[in-house]
Amino acid sequence: MNILSIETSCDETSVCISNDLDIKSLFISSQIALHSQYFGVVPELASRAHIENINFVIKQALDKAKISFDSFSSKIDAVSFTVGPGLAGALLVGALAAKTLSFVYKKPLIPVHHIEGHLYSSFIENGIVNPPFLGVIVSGGHTELIIVEDFGKYTLLGATRDDAAGEAFDKAAKMLGLSYPGGPVIDKKAQKGNPDAIAFTRPYLKDSWDFSFSGIKTALLNYLKKNPLKGENHLNDICASFRQSISETISFKAFEAAKKYNLKKIAMGGGVCANSLIRKMFETLAKKNKMKLYMPSLLYCGDNAAMIGIAAYLKQKKYGLKFGETQLKPSPSLILENW
Ligand SMILES: Nc1ncnc2c1ncn2[C@@H]1O[C@H](COP(=O)(O)OP(=O)(O)OP(=O)(O)O)[C@@H](O)[C@H]1O
Ligand SMILES: [Mg+2]
Q1: Measuring CA to CA, which of 13, 69, 242, 272 is 20 to 30 A from 250?
Q2: Burial class (CB within 10 angstroms; exposed 0-12, middle 13-18, buried 19+) of 84
Q3: Helix (H) or strand (E) holding 79
Q4: Mean pLDDT per 10-residue run, the chain (339 residues)?
């Protein structure tokens, strides 16, 4: 099945043409340069940029897949789009574009939950991972452990009670005078620092699978008040210690959960999954615990329409192509529900 997928939940305008699991073309237009001066995504600017970009991005993805608007009808079988969660105005742009293509070319629409995209993003390069497995979502807005009992059958074990891991990296970078987004910059500086230099807390939240990263952020703020930055080495040590704390917390809890629920496979997704230490820790722990680990490559960690196409493919395979009108309405706080 050939699917044209659209992702516009936050600050990436992305369109993909996929055939089952095969990515024919993918175009991602990032708005990082637009938002970096504000150290975060400004919703109104994001919506406007999506409106400006969407037609161009659709055209680029179609061109790369050698599909014209004239051959659209014969070459594309369905249109999918991120229906939520995300920024309201940003979601609306993608939904409207998808609905327009669906209406004009009379193609069915497949709504996709953004987190389901991240959850299945590792399938793009690894092939389908058969459930059950533990889904580990580490992104800008989510940090979650999800048992995937079957495709579309989920048990949410734990989620962050305050900041997501990516959000903590972004806020820490701002405190340290670094650029946005903070995750990649801190990751790079951390590689030159000492992870044991500063003992930031590991918020394990005993007896719960939830996460909480706002405490580490406050710990960093308090540390900086007492110890103002004094040069590059000091900055590298802070980045290394901060990254160590977040990475150890996520990996420890994820593997404890996998062991407790006797899950032998872990599939990761989300922008923070690009973190070099998190990747290394998960790889080491997977080997030690004899578990199979599936991670997307860096291209597919952050927001992209290819992961939406994969989730749409799995969804239509199981659910068919008929969705109620309410399921097609963009929803900023959409909850992950079973199919
Ligand atoms: N190497 C890295 N180390 C740590 N964090 C990173 C790295 N690369 C990117 N990130 C973080 O990933 C986040 C963006 O990820 P993503 O695009 O998946 O989030 P989002 O779509 O905004 O949120 P959500 O998916 O929860 O709606 C940012 O917070 C960014 O700092
Ligand atoms: Mg995302």
Answers
A1: 13
A2: buried
A3: strand 78-84
A4: 97 97 97 92 97 98 98 97 98 98 96 98 97 98 97 97 97 96 98 97 93 95 97 98 98 98 98 98 98 98 98 92 84 94
Alpha helices, H only, 29-87: 32-35, 43-64, 72-75
Q: How far is CA 137 from CA 105, 144, 231, 331, in A?
A: 35, 5, 34, 20
Burial of 127 (0-12, 13-18, 19+ CB in 10 A): exposed
The amino acid at 129 = V
Our answer on whether the CB atom of 237 is closer than 6 Å to any ligand 1 atom is: no
Short-list 292, 249, 266, 67, CA closest to 147? 266
Residue 132, preceding bond cis, omega within 30 degrees?
A: yes
Nearest residue by C-alpha to atom 13 in ligand 1: 140
Q: Does ligand 1 come within 6 angstroms of the Cβ of 272? A: yes
Closest-CA residue, ligand 1 atom 22, reads 140
Residue 161 to residue 164: CA distance in whole angstroms: 8
Task: Look at residue 136 and give its three-state secondary structure.
Answer: strand
Residue 61: predicted pLDDT: 98
Whether the CB of 170 sits within 6 Å of ligand 1 = yes
Contact 8, 54 (CB under 8 A): yes
Site to substitute for ligand 1 among 7, 8, 10, 144, most atoms within 8 A of C-beta: 10
What ranges make up the beta strands (E) of 129-231?
133-138, 143-150, 153-159
